[in-house]
Amino acid sequence: MNFNTLKHRCCFLQVSLMCLFCLPSLMAQSINTSVSSTSDARALDALLQDYAYRAFLRPRTGVPYDGVVPSNLSGIKITAMRLRSGSLRTKGVKMYKEFEIPIGVVEQPYVERLVLVYQNLGQWSMRYYSLPNYTYLSPVLGLLAYDASNLSATNLPELDIRAFGDPIKIKFSDVQSARDGSVPKCVWFDLHGLVNFSNLTSSNECSTIQQGHFSIVTESISPLSPPISPSTPPTSGGKKKTDREVWIIVASVLGGLLLLGLFAFLVLWARKCKLRKKMQEMEKAAEVGEALYMTSIGDTKAPQATVTRTQPTLESEYVP
Questions:
Q1: N vs C: which end of the chain shows fewer Cβ within 10 Å?
Q2: Closest Cα partner for 219 from 259, 250, 248, 179?
Q3: How many whole angstroms separate alpha carbon 134 and alpha carbon 201?
């Protein structure tokens, strides 16, 4: 195993440990931000638009017509009202069920006539718009705009209506009293599942500049456990739960220390392997050459061979 391979394995181990430590946090975030199925709510909107349009037998502009929902959705109330686009923008609607629509509401894209579909989900509010840790004080009310050019059309896309002057007011008529200490809030669900909270503008009244679904909620308060008397020993179930939590914490700490020690051991081993390889390369390089002795010639040191291969011969020895 060379050093590069060992280095890559150490990096892989480090990344794996980081993923293991981050995984619980990511899971917790995904669970806390999850909302009830938006697709179910959008399918309900399409179905209610179909049944609301069926109420238009001989429609008159500006007159609300109550629709009838299927028997399996009993408890939901729907109403449809056809308006001219110019009339909505210049006159508004004084009161459409719980909605007060001011002057200056414009739709996008522009259509000559539009239909405002009103929804009251009643006891179905929690089914289609679930809010963890919150309690509904009123049913969810919906206000959606559609094109009125074809009153027999189904699965129509919603128009985007916005108030450019005063906001649209929602005056809730069926509101439960909030618990002592809790503060009621307005909640708005847009067509993409976004949830937005705001303060009430007045008693049982909210405001908005866009269409969507609206209600009044309050944060759920978990019941407080009664104080334990000093003479009453804790229950065995609570003790087991506490012991289990302690063991989980201890095991997590020991596991983290063990993984940290293993990682440190791998780093030290990698350094040792690298040093050993370097020493072997130096020894191999030293064995290839031949060492020469040094001698001094004046003030200079120079290499000197220990043995000469050919003995010098004087030419005078061969002269007769």
A1: C
A2: 179
A3: 20
